[in-house]
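User: Hello! I'm new to structural biology and keep hearing that structure can be predicted from sequence alone. Could you demonstrate with magnesium chelatase? Please show me the input and the output so I can see what each looks like.

Assistant: Of course. The first part below is the input, the amino acid sequence of magnesium chelatase. The second part is the output, the predicted structure written as tokens.
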Amino acid sequence: MADESLIDKIHDLSDLELAVLICLVAKEHCIIDTEPDALDELVEELELVAENVFGLSHAIVDCSEHTSLDDFAHAILSIDASSSRSNSPVRPRQESSYFLHTSAFQSISKSPVSENFADNKTMANVIIAKNLDEAPKQVQIQALELMHSKRIYTRTSVQHAPKRFLFIALLAGGEGPRLTKHLNDQIFISHFHDPEDGFPNLEEKYDDGDSTSSVLKKSPGFEPDANLWPRVSAAEIEHLSQLSDQAMVSVEIKAHQQNIICFLRTHRAVAGGVSAAATQHFDKLSRCLAPLHNLSYTTPSLIALAARKIYPHRIHIVKPERERSMQWGSDVDAVSALLEGVGPEDVIEDVLGTAGPEVPL
């Protein structure tokens, strides 16, 4: 089990920080959703989470329908490999967010990634792909290849992801699958951040940092001492990862988990999305949650919590004319009325509630 000081740190994390921690522990990737008006603030908050909480470099990919493969490669290969700070856990924000402020994503025509560029740049630890669902299919396929193989092919070289690597698909205003099928299934968890929950790191920055920015002039290579010591270290993340691998799952809990999967697959509102990959992720997340709650075993409540994070971005809601009772003469208008307003989260809550399997004692 984790020591008390680490558990106290985990309890102090915000919802976004906890989502990032879970993905780093599991060595997987995530979708973070929010309201459209709060998307830019969420990008800044995640930048600060990567830097200050975990001491990781980051890069922003601002996607649109005109984003090309070269644009994508330019954005994620944003860290100067020849810099004297290449071995430091912290990189200046200016390096990783440079391409967010260029016009590269406004035009589909762009010069190829130069050999010199690829040779002198390396990949950031955290890739934040804003509006990835708006990117062309070939860009989303490139993102899938990056997640799966942890490398990206430019026109002149192959660039490998760092050991600690996280890809965040940042979406806005929607539910259910919005990415290409295989990319969506590769994503580990999804999390909705309500803007009313706030952006603590961003608020702290503007409360404390801006007031001194006019007094303290930083050189391009200067980083505050506080940022050199992330709140959650790489050693602590690795320790949590080892504990999650060792978490015990009883026969009763495993059976309960499989029953939830069966009930989701046979739910009348579900057309698909409860895949084999989702089942593997379901089991993995259940184990990862145990050490975060200072447990060496999984429980029914952890299983339920894992289901609420694994399936919302995967479940497809069936069209009324294809709902299974239509085979036996149901009225399509009655089925439409039944399914109106039903989303993936409603299905999950239905299965975890009275309509689902009995919870083992």
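User: So the tokens describe the shape?

Assistant: Right, they're a compact way of writing down the 3D structure. Reading them back into a model, for example: Residues 83-114, 211-227 have pLDDT under 50 and may be disordered.
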